[in-house]
Amino acid sequence: MILSELTVSAADFETRTGWAAKPEGLCKGDICVPAPEAALDDGRLDITSVADKLAMPLVHDTATDTYALGPEGLGHSLTTAVAPNLVLPNANDDDNPFLLSSLHGRKVLLVAWASW
Amino acid sequence: MSLPGWQALHAELESQGVSVVTVALDIDPNKARPWIEAASPTHPSLIDTAHVTNELFGFNNVPMAVWIDESGTLVRPAESASIEARDTDAPIPDGLPERVQELIGEARKIPDIGAQYRGAIMDWVANGAKSEFALSPAEVVEASHPRDKNNAEAAANFELGQHLFTTVGKHAAVPFWRAAHALDPANWTYKRQAWTIETTPEGEPSDMMQPPTETYEGNWLDDVRAAGGGENYVTKPAFLTQETP
Fold first, then answer.
1. Which of B151, B181, B142 is nearest to A70 (CA)?
2. How many domains does one find in chain A?
3. Average pLDDT over residues B153-182
């Protein structure tokens, strides 16, 4: 996740990473990690604390003062079998981003490809 | 490119409660769009410029897929996905440069999983959670790719490079992409994306050969060989690695 400062709105963080800020901590699917220092009082999260609790690496580019927060390094690429609500642009519908949740109730085959 | 095949599968299964969603891991959306337009898809055709599906699902090569059931639960983790047989027996044309011949030879060793993988999909469509190919939540997590500190750091380096490529220029991206390659050498999306950008002339389609460059230590042919050859290039679904009785 690209960041220009070391706080982020909890909503943006959830959209990008699948981790939601809840009273019990940072949660993805059925997994919750207590992180009492992570939640700031204005609906934002303290990235340094989040990075520590979820083993997310933080990489910095000094020239542009830009950060990239990596995914959780908790052992597997999937922390839970509950699919995150993927949000991405849809080439078939330039006006509306695709939300994986829109296909709830259907089986989904999510297939990655590339031009290269 | 397999997009027409996936579109055909979507059309075939749509009335049975199944949706195919394809996602292009392409930093430049304009590289992906001609392929999408040619396939005339009616299924959602996503463009993932930052490779976020790599982070969220574990797509570390293409083509790969995950299966998600009606409740939004993954029943198969990221693994190589193909539904069409490949012609690996046709003779390699004479007169090709030696390196290209070697590359084609290595690519032909990539296991052809199309028939079995399609059969597994059809079994899941028919039998749902009772299908032997639908894994439990615990099995899905356990079977997903390992992700240690280095793998996670590679993802952050790749995304920072992608951001800088778009906002500053290629020279700003290269150090972070080199770091990503070193931290997670088994991740092909980080490498192939960067190699392609390095060797594709401006305005040309993507360079599938991905030859050696002065910018990166690796290239497709040498890295595939170093990883054990085309046979080991894909993440074969576990049901294909078991001996058939």
1. B151
2. 1
3. 98
Q: Considering the domain boundaries, does residue A105 fall inside one?
A: no
Does residue A74 lie within any of the structural domains? no
The CA distance from A2 to the nearest CA of chain B, in Å, is 7
Cβ pairs A/B, distance under 8 A: 257
Domain B3-144, CATH among 3.40.50, 3.30.160, 3.30.2010, 3.40.30: 3.40.30
Distance (Å, rounded) from C-alpha A103 to C-alpha A67?
A: 33
Chain A residues near residue B24 by CB distance under 8 angstroms: 91, 113-115
pLDDT band for B136, please (50, 70, 90 cuts). Answer: very high
Does residue A106 lie in a domain region? no
Where do the H-state alpha helices sit in B29-169?
Answer: 29-39, 52-57, 98-108, 114-127, 137-143, 149-167
ipTM above 0.95, yes or no: yes
Residue A97 belongs to a domain: no
For the segment A89-104, the average pLDDT, to the nearest whole number, is 94
CB contact under 8 A, B206 and A83: no
Test A71 with B152 for CB contact under 8 angstroms. Answer: yes
Hey, is the C-beta of A4 within 8 angstroms of any chain B C-beta?
A: no
Q: Which residues have CB under 8 Å from B109's CB, separation 6+?
A: B229, B230, B231, B233
Letter for the amino acid at A101? S
Look up the pTM and report it: 0.95
pLDDT score, position B1:
55
**Within an 8 Å CB–CB cutoff, is residue A16 touching chain B?**
yes
Domain encompassing residue A34: 2-69
A47, A38 Cβ separation under 8 angstroms = no
SS3 percent helix, strand, coil of chain B, rounded to 5, is: 50, 10, 40
pLDDT in tens, B164-177: 999 999 999 999 99
Residue B152 pLDDT: 98
